[in-house]
Design a protein that fits this description.
six-stranded parallel beta sheet, endoplasmic reticulum
Length: 164
């Protein structure tokens, strides 16, 4: 069963959870063959009831000690743009769609998503463009992320945060 795993990390990103469980987003996922949706909702106030989604197998949780198994079982990971979540998803070798929270002030997440997209490691969008991105995305253009380059990543983060 093709699975999408959605993670917001330790934060609250209700807009992402609401958008990914909208009728149009679910229709786009279903069209692409995804039948199972696993949501890690973090501290958010939106907690979808699986019984309200009869056309998709829906699993919802707030936190686990590790989400590595969820990522391993996923065919597509949709994540907030936090550096830790991005690196964990890329390290799992899965197709990654990052949803940038454009409501954040001084949004370094957008810079990270743009750079990793420029390097062809992920696709990115915002909540208002998520459904259209799901409809039009081409995951075949993504290139594997080569882990083990912490210095390169640290330098990028320093630059993005204005520390260099």
């Amino acid at each position: 069963m093709k699975t999408v795993f959605v993670t917001v990390g330790t934060t609250s990103f209700d807009d992402l959870i609401e958008e990914i469980t909208s009728a149009e987003a679910l229709k786009a996922l279903k069209y692409r063959g995804y039948e199972r949706l696993v949501l890690q909702v973090g501290r958010g106030s939106v907690l979808p009831d699986p019984q309200n989604f009869p056309h998709v197998t829906l699993e919802v949780f707030r936190f686990k000690d590790s989400i590595a198994k969820d990522m391993e079982q996923a065919d597509l990971i949709i994540s907030h743009a936090g550096a830790g979540s991005c690196l964990e998803a890329l390290g799992a070798g899965k197709a990654l769609l990052v949803v940038v929270n454009d409501k954040l002030m001084d949004n370094h997440q957008l810079e990270l998503a743009r750079q990793l997209h420029t390097d062809s490691h992920l696709l990115y969008c915002t909540c208002p463009t998520l459904t259209e991105t799901l409809r039009s995305m081409d995951l075949s253009v993504l290139q594997p992320f080569v882990p083990g380059q912490p210095k390169k990543f640290a330098n990028f983060m320093d630059k993005a945060l204005g520390l260099q």
